[in-house]
From TrEMBL:
It holds the Pfam family ADH_zinc_N. Residues 45-143 form the Alcohol dehydrogenase-like N-terminal domain. Its cofactor is Zn(2+). Residues 187-314 form the Alcohol dehydrogenase-like C-terminal domain. Belongs to the zinc-containing alcohol dehydrogenase family. This is D-arabinose 1-dehydrogenase, Zn-dependent alcohol dehydrogenase family.
Amino acid sequence: MKAWTLTSLDAGLTLEEVPDPQPRSGGAVLRMLAVQVPAYTRVLVAGGRGGIATPTVLGVGGIGVVEAVGDDVHAVRPGDVVMSSGFLSSGRVAEPEEVLLGWTGIGGRGTATGTTDAMRRTWRTGTFAERALMPASTLIALPGAEDHPDLARLAFLPWLTIAAGAVERGDLAAGDSVVVAGATGQLGGATVLLALAAGAGRVVAFGRNRASLERLAALDDRVVPVAALADRAADAAALARALGGDADVVVDALGPAPTSDLTMAAYDVLRTDGTMVLVGGVRQSLPIPYSDLMHRRLTLRGSWMASNETAYATWRQVRAGLVDLDALQVTTVGLNDPDQALAQAEAVRGLEIVTLRP
Ligand SMILES: NC(=O)c1ccc[n+]([C@@H]2O[C@H](COP(=O)([O-])OP(=O)(O)OC[C@H]3O[C@@H](n4cnc5c(N)ncnc54)[C@H](OP(=O)(O)O)[C@@H]3O)[C@@H](O)[C@H]2O)c1
Protein backbone atom coordinates (compact mmCIF):
# COMPACT_ATOMS: atom_id res chain seq x y z
CA MET A 1 0.00 0.00 0.00
CA LYS A 2 0.98 3.65 -0.29
CA ALA A 3 1.65 5.68 2.87
CA TRP A 4 3.18 8.97 4.04
CA THR A 5 6.21 7.77 5.94
CA LEU A 6 8.51 9.54 8.38
CA THR A 7 11.88 7.80 8.66
CA SER A 8 13.24 10.29 11.18
CA LEU A 9 12.31 13.78 12.30
CA ASP A 10 14.78 15.49 9.95
CA ALA A 11 14.11 13.28 6.93
CA GLY A 12 10.85 14.86 5.75
CA LEU A 13 7.60 13.13 4.91
CA THR A 14 7.76 10.85 1.86
CA LEU A 15 5.30 8.77 -0.12
CA GLU A 16 6.40 5.13 0.18
CA GLU A 17 5.18 1.73 -0.88
CA VAL A 18 4.99 -0.30 2.38
CA PRO A 19 3.62 -3.77 3.23
CA ASP A 20 -0.14 -3.98 3.72
CA PRO A 21 -0.92 -4.21 7.46
CA GLN A 22 -2.26 -7.57 8.59
CA PRO A 23 -4.88 -8.04 11.34
CA ARG A 24 -3.59 -9.28 14.67
CA SER A 25 -4.71 -9.76 18.24
CA GLY A 26 -6.26 -6.60 19.68
CA GLY A 27 -6.22 -4.75 16.37
CA ALA A 28 -8.26 -3.95 13.28
CA VAL A 29 -7.21 -3.10 9.75
CA LEU A 30 -8.93 -0.06 8.29
CA ARG A 31 -9.14 1.16 4.74
CA MET A 32 -8.77 4.89 5.27
CA LEU A 33 -11.57 6.92 3.69
CA ALA A 34 -10.86 10.48 4.86
CA VAL A 35 -8.27 11.98 7.21
CA GLN A 36 -7.95 15.63 8.20
CA VAL A 37 -4.41 16.98 7.81
CA PRO A 38 -3.97 19.40 10.74
CA ALA A 39 -2.62 22.85 9.89
CA TYR A 40 0.51 22.33 12.01
CA THR A 41 1.52 19.00 10.39
CA ARG A 42 4.42 20.55 8.44
CA VAL A 43 5.82 22.12 11.62
CA LEU A 44 5.38 18.81 13.43
CA VAL A 45 7.23 16.90 10.70
CA ALA A 46 10.10 19.39 11.01
CA GLY A 47 10.38 18.55 14.72
CA GLY A 48 8.64 21.68 16.01
CA ARG A 49 6.08 19.88 18.20
CA GLY A 50 8.05 17.27 20.12
CA GLY A 51 9.24 13.74 19.45
CA ILE A 52 7.60 11.10 17.28
CA ALA A 53 8.42 7.39 17.42
CA THR A 54 10.07 6.79 14.02
CA PRO A 55 10.18 5.23 11.51
CA THR A 56 6.42 5.41 11.21
CA VAL A 57 3.53 5.97 8.89
CA LEU A 58 2.38 9.44 10.01
CA GLY A 59 -1.17 10.53 10.76
CA VAL A 60 -3.60 10.78 13.66
CA GLY A 61 -7.39 10.61 13.51
CA GLY A 62 -9.43 9.72 10.48
CA ILE A 63 -12.46 7.90 9.18
CA GLY A 64 -12.04 4.40 7.80
CA VAL A 65 -13.93 1.24 7.02
CA VAL A 66 -12.95 -1.91 8.91
CA GLU A 67 -11.59 -4.60 6.58
CA ALA A 68 -10.46 -7.20 9.10
CA VAL A 69 -10.19 -7.66 12.86
CA GLY A 70 -8.13 -9.78 15.24
CA ASP A 71 -9.84 -12.88 16.69
CA ASP A 72 -10.37 -11.18 20.06
CA VAL A 73 -11.77 -7.87 18.71
CA HIS A 74 -15.48 -7.19 19.21
CA ALA A 75 -15.67 -3.39 19.53
CA VAL A 76 -15.67 -2.97 15.77
CA ARG A 77 -16.67 -5.36 12.99
CA PRO A 78 -15.67 -5.76 9.34
CA GLY A 79 -17.72 -3.33 7.27
CA ASP A 80 -18.14 -0.77 10.09
CA VAL A 81 -17.33 2.85 9.30
CA VAL A 82 -15.27 4.00 12.28
CA MET A 83 -13.39 6.96 13.69
CA SER A 84 -9.77 6.33 14.58
CA SER A 85 -8.65 8.50 17.51
CA GLY A 86 -5.01 7.39 17.64
CA PHE A 87 -5.30 7.84 21.43
CA LEU A 88 -4.01 4.72 23.19
CA SER A 89 -4.18 4.17 26.94
CA SER A 90 -2.25 1.54 28.88
CA GLY A 91 -5.59 0.82 30.57
CA ARG A 92 -3.95 0.61 34.00
CA VAL A 93 -6.56 2.31 36.20
CA ALA A 94 -4.23 3.34 39.03
CA GLU A 95 -1.60 4.96 36.82
CA PRO A 96 -2.90 5.32 33.26
CA GLU A 97 -0.28 6.04 30.62
CA GLU A 98 -1.37 7.49 27.28
CA VAL A 99 0.17 8.07 23.87
CA LEU A 100 -0.86 9.22 20.43
CA LEU A 101 -0.06 6.77 17.63
CA GLY A 102 1.48 8.04 14.39
CA TRP A 103 1.87 11.49 15.94
CA THR A 104 3.60 13.41 18.70
CA GLY A 105 2.16 13.31 22.21
CA ILE A 106 2.64 11.46 25.48
CA GLY A 107 0.08 12.05 28.23
CA GLY A 108 0.61 12.70 31.90
CA ARG A 109 3.81 14.65 32.46
CA GLY A 110 4.81 14.13 28.84
CA THR A 111 7.79 11.95 29.64
CA ALA A 112 8.42 8.68 27.82
CA THR A 113 8.52 5.57 30.02
CA GLY A 114 9.15 1.91 29.34
CA THR A 115 5.39 1.50 28.98
CA THR A 116 4.84 4.37 26.52
CA ASP A 117 7.86 3.22 24.48
CA ALA A 118 6.44 -0.30 24.33
CA MET A 119 2.99 0.98 23.33
CA ARG A 120 4.45 3.03 20.48
CA ARG A 121 6.70 0.15 19.41
CA THR A 122 3.84 -2.36 19.29
CA TRP A 123 1.55 -0.01 17.38
CA ARG A 124 3.88 1.86 15.01
CA THR A 125 1.02 3.07 12.88
CA GLY A 126 -0.58 6.20 11.42
CA THR A 127 -3.54 7.07 9.23
CA PHE A 128 -2.00 9.04 6.32
CA ALA A 129 -2.08 5.82 4.30
CA GLU A 130 -4.32 3.59 2.25
CA ARG A 131 -4.64 1.23 5.24
CA ALA A 132 -3.87 1.30 8.96
CA LEU A 133 -3.66 -1.35 11.68
CA MET A 134 -5.02 0.22 14.85
CA PRO A 135 -5.68 -1.07 18.37
CA ALA A 136 -9.41 -1.70 18.72
CA SER A 137 -9.57 0.47 21.85
CA THR A 138 -8.80 3.53 19.67
CA LEU A 139 -11.64 2.86 17.22
CA ILE A 140 -15.23 4.04 17.58
CA ALA A 141 -17.91 2.53 15.38
CA LEU A 142 -20.13 5.23 13.85
CA PRO A 143 -23.51 3.62 13.12
CA GLY A 144 -25.09 5.41 10.15
CA ALA A 145 -21.82 6.91 8.88
CA GLU A 146 -21.90 4.53 5.89
CA ASP A 147 -24.67 6.78 4.54
CA HIS A 148 -22.93 10.07 5.36
CA PRO A 149 -23.05 12.24 2.24
CA ASP A 150 -19.63 13.88 2.66
CA LEU A 151 -16.79 11.91 4.24
CA ALA A 152 -14.32 14.71 3.49
CA ARG A 153 -16.24 16.85 6.01
CA LEU A 154 -16.68 13.98 8.45
CA ALA A 155 -12.87 13.80 8.61
CA PHE A 156 -13.16 16.74 11.04
CA LEU A 157 -14.84 14.45 13.63
CA PRO A 158 -11.62 13.72 15.58
CA TRP A 159 -10.94 17.45 16.04
CA LEU A 160 -14.59 18.04 16.96
CA THR A 161 -14.26 15.26 19.53
CA ILE A 162 -11.24 16.91 21.16
CA ALA A 163 -13.19 20.18 21.29
CA ALA A 164 -16.20 18.35 22.73
CA GLY A 165 -13.95 16.98 25.48
CA ALA A 166 -12.95 20.54 26.37
CA VAL A 167 -16.54 21.80 26.31
CA GLU A 168 -17.58 18.93 28.60
CA ARG A 169 -14.78 19.73 31.03
CA GLY A 170 -15.99 23.34 31.11
CA ASP A 171 -19.36 22.13 32.44
CA LEU A 172 -21.01 24.39 29.88
CA ALA A 173 -24.73 24.84 30.52
CA ALA A 174 -27.34 26.07 28.04
CA GLY A 175 -27.41 29.86 28.05
CA ASP A 176 -23.81 30.24 29.29
CA SER A 177 -21.45 32.85 27.88
CA VAL A 178 -18.25 31.31 26.54
CA VAL A 179 -14.97 32.78 25.37
CA VAL A 180 -12.99 30.65 22.91
CA ALA A 181 -9.38 31.86 22.81
CA GLY A 182 -7.71 30.83 19.56
CA ALA A 183 -11.12 30.48 17.91
CA THR A 184 -9.42 31.19 14.57
CA GLY A 185 -7.63 27.82 14.66
CA GLN A 186 -9.08 24.45 13.74
CA LEU A 187 -9.50 23.30 17.33
CA GLY A 188 -10.88 26.71 18.29
CA GLY A 189 -13.32 26.66 15.36
CA ALA A 190 -14.41 23.16 16.40
CA THR A 191 -14.94 24.46 19.95
CA VAL A 192 -17.19 27.25 18.67
CA LEU A 193 -19.33 24.67 16.82
CA LEU A 194 -19.57 22.45 19.92
CA ALA A 195 -20.39 25.36 22.24
CA LEU A 196 -23.19 26.45 19.90
CA ALA A 197 -24.51 22.88 19.80
CA ALA A 198 -24.41 22.76 23.62
CA GLY A 199 -26.75 25.77 23.71
CA ALA A 200 -24.31 28.51 24.69
CA GLY A 201 -26.08 31.86 24.91
CA ARG A 202 -23.10 33.77 23.58
CA VAL A 203 -19.82 32.55 22.10
CA VAL A 204 -17.08 35.15 21.96
CA ALA A 205 -14.64 34.07 19.26
CA PHE A 206 -11.27 35.55 20.18
CA GLY A 207 -8.28 35.36 17.83
CA ARG A 208 -6.05 37.13 15.35
CA ASN A 209 -7.12 36.09 11.90
CA ARG A 210 -9.91 38.38 10.73
CA ALA A 211 -11.13 36.19 7.85
CA SER A 212 -11.56 33.27 10.27
CA LEU A 213 -13.39 35.51 12.72
CA GLU A 214 -15.78 36.66 9.98
CA ARG A 215 -16.48 33.05 8.98
CA LEU A 216 -17.30 32.22 12.61
CA ALA A 217 -19.51 35.28 13.04
CA ALA A 218 -21.52 34.24 9.97
CA LEU A 219 -22.36 30.88 11.63
CA ASP A 220 -24.86 32.13 14.15
CA ASP A 221 -26.07 35.36 15.77
CA ARG A 222 -24.75 34.07 19.11
CA VAL A 223 -21.14 34.31 17.88
CA VAL A 224 -19.43 37.62 18.63
CA PRO A 225 -15.94 38.02 17.12
CA VAL A 226 -13.16 39.86 18.98
CA ALA A 227 -9.90 40.54 17.15
CA ALA A 228 -6.88 39.99 19.40
CA LEU A 229 -4.54 42.94 19.93
CA ALA A 230 -1.93 41.04 22.02
CA ASP A 231 -2.32 43.60 24.82
CA ARG A 232 -3.74 41.86 27.87
CA ALA A 233 -5.65 44.79 29.34
CA ALA A 234 -7.03 46.01 26.00
CA ASP A 235 -8.01 42.47 24.97
CA ALA A 236 -9.73 41.81 28.31
CA ALA A 237 -11.67 45.08 27.95
CA ALA A 238 -12.77 44.12 24.41
CA LEU A 239 -13.83 40.64 25.61
CA ALA A 240 -15.85 42.15 28.48
CA ARG A 241 -17.63 44.47 26.00
CA ALA A 242 -18.42 41.57 23.67
CA LEU A 243 -19.70 39.49 26.60
CA GLY A 244 -21.69 42.33 28.10
CA GLY A 245 -20.09 41.31 31.42
CA ASP A 246 -18.18 38.16 32.45
CA ALA A 247 -17.74 34.70 30.94
CA ASP A 248 -19.11 31.56 32.56
CA VAL A 249 -16.60 29.41 30.69
CA VAL A 250 -13.35 30.03 28.84
CA VAL A 251 -11.86 27.45 26.50
CA ASP A 252 -8.30 28.21 25.43
CA ALA A 253 -7.43 26.44 22.15
CA LEU A 254 -4.46 28.59 21.17
CA GLY A 255 -1.43 27.26 19.37
CA PRO A 256 2.09 28.12 20.57
CA ALA A 257 1.67 31.86 21.21
CA PRO A 258 4.88 33.65 22.26
CA THR A 259 3.41 34.98 25.52
CA SER A 260 0.58 34.06 27.85
CA ASP A 261 -1.14 37.43 27.28
CA LEU A 262 -4.00 36.13 25.11
CA THR A 263 -4.73 33.30 27.54
CA MET A 264 -4.57 35.68 30.51
CA ALA A 265 -6.88 38.24 28.84
CA ALA A 266 -9.51 35.48 28.64
CA TYR A 267 -8.77 34.45 32.24
CA ASP A 268 -9.36 38.05 33.32
CA VAL A 269 -13.00 38.01 32.15
CA LEU A 270 -14.03 34.78 33.92
CA ARG A 271 -16.84 35.30 36.39
CA THR A 272 -16.57 34.27 40.04
CA ASP A 273 -17.09 30.47 40.12
CA GLY A 274 -16.28 30.28 36.41
CA THR A 275 -14.29 27.53 34.68
CA MET A 276 -11.34 27.82 32.33
CA VAL A 277 -10.29 24.86 30.19
CA LEU A 278 -6.85 24.64 28.58
CA VAL A 279 -6.89 22.44 25.46
CA GLY A 280 -4.44 24.25 23.17
CA GLY A 281 -0.71 24.08 22.59
CA VAL A 282 0.58 27.13 24.50
CA ARG A 283 4.09 26.50 25.87
CA GLN A 284 4.10 29.36 28.39
CA SER A 285 3.62 29.40 32.15
CA LEU A 286 0.52 31.23 33.35
CA PRO A 287 0.96 34.03 35.95
CA ILE A 288 -2.07 33.23 38.09
CA PRO A 289 -2.14 34.86 41.55
CA TYR A 290 -3.07 32.35 44.26
CA SER A 291 -5.41 34.77 46.03
CA ASP A 292 -7.24 35.66 42.82
CA LEU A 293 -7.95 32.04 41.90
CA MET A 294 -8.98 31.38 45.50
CA HIS A 295 -11.23 34.44 46.01
CA ARG A 296 -12.96 34.05 42.64
CA ARG A 297 -13.31 30.27 43.32
CA LEU A 298 -12.19 29.61 39.76
CA THR A 299 -11.82 26.15 38.28
CA LEU A 300 -8.87 25.65 35.97
CA ARG A 301 -8.89 22.38 34.03
CA GLY A 302 -6.69 20.75 31.44
CA SER A 303 -8.14 18.73 28.58
CA TRP A 304 -6.11 16.27 26.51
CA MET A 305 -7.85 14.23 23.83
CA ALA A 306 -11.23 12.69 24.78
CA SER A 307 -12.96 9.45 25.63
CA ASN A 308 -14.55 7.08 23.12
CA GLU A 309 -17.90 7.97 24.72
CA THR A 310 -17.28 11.64 23.87
CA ALA A 311 -16.39 10.66 20.30
CA TYR A 312 -19.63 8.73 19.94
CA ALA A 313 -21.67 11.57 21.49
CA THR A 314 -20.05 14.00 19.04
CA TRP A 315 -20.90 11.73 16.10
CA ARG A 316 -24.53 11.68 17.30
CA GLN A 317 -24.56 15.49 17.32
CA VAL A 318 -23.17 15.54 13.79
CA ARG A 319 -25.66 12.92 12.64
CA ALA A 320 -28.54 14.86 14.18
CA GLY A 321 -27.41 18.07 12.44
CA LEU A 322 -26.71 19.86 15.74
CA VAL A 323 -23.09 20.26 14.65
CA ASP A 324 -23.36 21.44 11.06
CA LEU A 325 -20.44 20.28 8.93
CA ASP A 326 -21.62 22.58 6.12
CA ALA A 327 -19.78 25.27 8.09
CA LEU A 328 -16.53 23.74 6.86
CA GLN A 329 -14.72 24.67 3.68
CA VAL A 330 -12.86 21.55 2.57
CA THR A 331 -9.89 21.10 0.24
CA THR A 332 -9.32 17.47 -0.72
CA VAL A 333 -5.87 16.06 -1.43
CA GLY A 334 -4.55 12.64 -2.44
CA LEU A 335 -1.46 10.75 -1.29
CA ASN A 336 0.73 11.55 -4.31
CA ASP A 337 2.39 14.78 -3.09
CA PRO A 338 2.85 15.03 0.71
CA ASP A 339 4.92 18.24 0.54
CA GLN A 340 2.23 20.08 -1.36
CA ALA A 341 -0.53 18.68 0.88
CA LEU A 342 1.27 19.87 4.02
CA ALA A 343 1.77 23.33 2.48
CA GLN A 344 -1.94 23.49 1.60
CA ALA A 345 -2.87 22.40 5.13
CA GLU A 346 -0.64 25.08 6.64
CA ALA A 347 -2.22 27.77 4.46
CA VAL A 348 -5.80 27.18 5.62
CA ARG A 349 -7.34 28.52 8.80
CA GLY A 350 -10.03 27.65 11.31
CA LEU A 351 -13.09 26.13 9.69
CA GLU A 352 -11.18 25.62 6.44
CA ILE A 353 -9.65 22.15 6.47
CA VAL A 354 -7.57 19.93 4.22
CA THR A 355 -8.73 16.33 3.99
CA LEU A 356 -6.65 13.45 2.65
CA ARG A 357 -8.63 10.91 0.61
CA PRO A 358 -6.05 8.10 0.28
N1 LIG B 1 -5.41 19.14 24.10
C1 LIG B 1 -5.53 18.35 23.06
O1 LIG B 1 -6.07 17.23 23.18
C2 LIG B 1 -5.05 18.80 21.72
C3 LIG B 1 -5.35 18.05 20.59
C4 LIG B 1 -4.96 18.52 19.36
C5 LIG B 1 -4.23 19.68 19.26
N2 LIG B 1 -3.90 20.36 20.40
C6 LIG B 1 -3.12 21.62 20.35
O2 LIG B 1 -4.02 22.66 20.09
C7 LIG B 1 -3.35 23.70 19.41
C8 LIG B 1 -4.27 24.28 18.36
O3 LIG B 1 -4.54 23.29 17.38
P1 LIG B 1 -5.21 23.70 16.00
O4 LIG B 1 -5.42 22.46 15.24
O5 LIG B 1 -6.35 24.60 16.24
O6 LIG B 1 -4.02 24.52 15.34
P2 LIG B 1 -4.14 25.72 14.30
O7 LIG B 1 -5.29 25.47 13.39
O8 LIG B 1 -2.78 25.90 13.74
O9 LIG B 1 -4.54 26.99 15.21
C9 LIG B 1 -3.62 27.65 16.02
C10 LIG B 1 -4.32 28.78 16.76
O10 LIG B 1 -3.36 29.45 17.57
C11 LIG B 1 -3.24 30.80 17.15
N3 LIG B 1 -1.84 31.20 17.19
C12 LIG B 1 -0.78 30.49 16.72
N4 LIG B 1 0.35 31.19 16.92
C13 LIG B 1 -0.01 32.34 17.50
C14 LIG B 1 0.72 33.49 17.92
N5 LIG B 1 2.04 33.57 17.78
N6 LIG B 1 0.03 34.49 18.47
C15 LIG B 1 -1.30 34.42 18.59
N7 LIG B 1 -2.06 33.38 18.20
C16 LIG B 1 -1.40 32.35 17.66
C17 LIG B 1 -3.77 30.84 15.72
O11 LIG B 1 -4.19 32.14 15.43
P3 LIG B 1 -4.31 32.68 13.91
O12 LIG B 1 -5.34 31.85 13.23
O13 LIG B 1 -4.71 34.07 14.07
O14 LIG B 1 -2.96 32.49 13.28
C18 LIG B 1 -4.90 29.83 15.84
O15 LIG B 1 -6.01 30.42 16.46
C19 LIG B 1 -2.10 23.08 18.81
O16 LIG B 1 -0.96 23.76 19.29
C20 LIG B 1 -2.11 21.63 19.24
O17 LIG B 1 -0.86 21.22 19.73
C21 LIG B 1 -4.31 19.96 21.61
